Amino acid sequence: MHIPDGYLSPATAGTMYAASVPFWYVATKQVRRTLTNRTVPVLALFAAFSFVLMMFNVPLPGGTTGHAVGGTLLAIIVGPWAAVLGISVVLGIQALFFGDGGILALGANCFNMAIVLPLAGYFIYKVLAGDSEANSSRRLLAAVAGSYIAINIAALLTGIELGIQPTLFHTADGTPLYAPYNMNKALPAMMGGHLLVAGPIEALVTGLVFAYLQRSSFDLIATEAPKKGGGKLWLLWGALSLVALATPLGLLASGTAWGEWGSGELKDLGLNFIPNGLKRFEGWWPAPIPDYGWSRMGATIGYLLSAFIGIALVAFLAWVIGRRLIRKTAGESAPSESPPKMKSESFLSKNISHITQALESVLFSEDLGRAPGLLQGLDPRVKVVTLLLFIVIVSLARSLPILACIFFMVMVLSILSKVPLGFFLKRVLLFIPIFTAVIAIPALFITPGDALVIVGDKVIITEQGARTAGFLVLRVLDSLSLGVLLILTTPWDSLLRALRWLRLPALFVAILGMTYRYIFLLLHAVNNMFLARKSRTVGSLSGAENRRWLARALTTTLAKSHHLSEEVYLAMLSRGYRGEVVTLDNFSLRRRDFFWGIFAVVIAAIILWRSNL
CA of 364: how far to CAs of 37, 216, 354, 380, 520, in Å? Predict the structure, then answer.
């Protein structure tokens, strides 16, 4: 449905830009009133989802391809006007960076897919949903129907825009100057594929995501402008990453979308001429990553890398625009707002909240280790050995797709082990930039090799540098996720005892055990200090008083740490500690442990074999 440059006359392209500008203006005004700090991340997330969704090409009748858009879904989640801006951002990045759709034709593409599609889909959704409950089946059916009808309306407009070009713009002998096919061919071709294939896929995707949101985060769909982003955005970002890993499936659909052919493809279709407009405007914009591919890099890896680059660009730009609009609105309405909270209250509240969350996280991890999941039911010794085996395999693997598949396998294991995916991904993904950015980012630019990104006459990024950075990031990601999964699914005492079974020095295991208990007690002590201070503080304190209190608190904490270490050690001695870890449950191998061990060895052998082909 993306119209490339050369298929629309400059007059038509200008008209479509002019038709889009008023909608962009109204969207900006409306979004300023509805968008909040909590809904900006939601806009960024679902705009990125729309970008990924458009990368999944599906075969259409006649040997062409098509794709879903997700415009109606975005309109339902963040509101129709925010969806207008979000999909416009997606289409702009596709045209500028990936050559998907034209710069001159961007106004037409935005009008069809970013304006008409979400507005029409949302209108149909609201009419059909009525005043029904947010989690009702009526709303689900309304979302499905709205998405199906809206994408076909957009396809109809695209067919009309392409079909009128030969009639309005042609040479004296009737040869088309721009789009080569008239209305009799353009409309059936566009509508047939979208009515039969692309439309049902758009409806299916909308229905599946909407049904999930109804069950887990239906506050996102409860009102026209959601009050909050929901507590499961980490889970949704993780799901988006998994969907992005599957984007190379879009390469399986052969052929080009109808109306998006280049001059060479038009010749292959049997057209005995190339329109002069196509010759003039085709390829005039040098997209940095044309057709989502990278030179001297395999199609699968290039498509996958483009997916994650596009996600980052779309999410970042949508977030920047949203924050910019919010900041401007806040500046305009500042005099009427309530006075800000006292700095001292904010300082204390934040610290108490963070420490309490850390304590809850520790307690929750202990509960997960005893949950009735797949890995929790295994002998700790078998778990430690097999997951260490996978970490070794990660260090030996020499294939980026294999490393990506290992991470996907870890995600599946976490789900089967009853570990909330959002909780798991938050603990894994937060550390990846910290541990890899210092090395991976410089490797992109300093590793010698074949040019991958060139600016002017200077090579900026090499293929070998990109592969080195990719290996580093994926290996750290896989190793860290395996370690986190082991800790979350194994009680701490059982893990320490399994480490002693592997003949780790008793002193090393003892230090681990004491450190864990000491941190837990220290968090309790610090939390009590902050709560005590807040309960004894009346009014606001100056910044100097806050700094003096913080200095005294640090000194007190250091003194408490020494005292607590003695108490922890004495408590362990009083409970029978003699240098070895003692648990209530005795280790015993069962049938499931043997099956898991065989499975792990087979998977490790397959990974080694495939990564060294």
Answer: 28, 20, 15, 19, 13
Task: For residues 233-254, give the mean pLDDT.
Answer: 75
CB-count burial class (<10 Å; 0-12, 13-18, 19+) for 52: buried
What pLDDT, in 10s, does the model give residues 255-268? Answer: 777 778 777 777 77
Do 316 and 48 meet the contact criterion of CB atoms below 8 Å apart? Answer: no
Residues of each domain in the chain carrying CATH 1.10.1760.20: 10-330
CATH number given to 10-330? 1.10.1760.20
Unique residue bearing structure tokens 């391809």: 65
CA terminus-to-terminus distance, the chain: 39
Alpha-carbon gap, residue 520 to 517, rounded angstroms: 5
Task: Give the Cα separation of 4 and 100 in Å (integer).
Answer: 7
Please name which of 207, 282, 261, 208 lies closest in space to residue 65, comparing C-alpha atoms. 261
The structure tokens listed for 523 are 């968090």
Tokens representing residue 124 in the block: 């149909």
Segments of 414-501 assigned E as strands: 451-455, 458-462
* Range with top average pLDDT, 70-84, 220-234, 552-566: 70-84
Is residue 130 classed exposed, middle or buried when 0-12, 13-18 and 19+ CB atoms within 10 A define those classes? exposed
Query: Is 453 in contact with 466 (CB distance < 8 Å)?
Result: no
* 375 contacts: CB under 8 Å, gap ≥ 6: 383, 413, 416, 417, 485, 486, 489, 490
Longest dimension (CA), the chain: 101
Whole-structure pTM value: 0.57
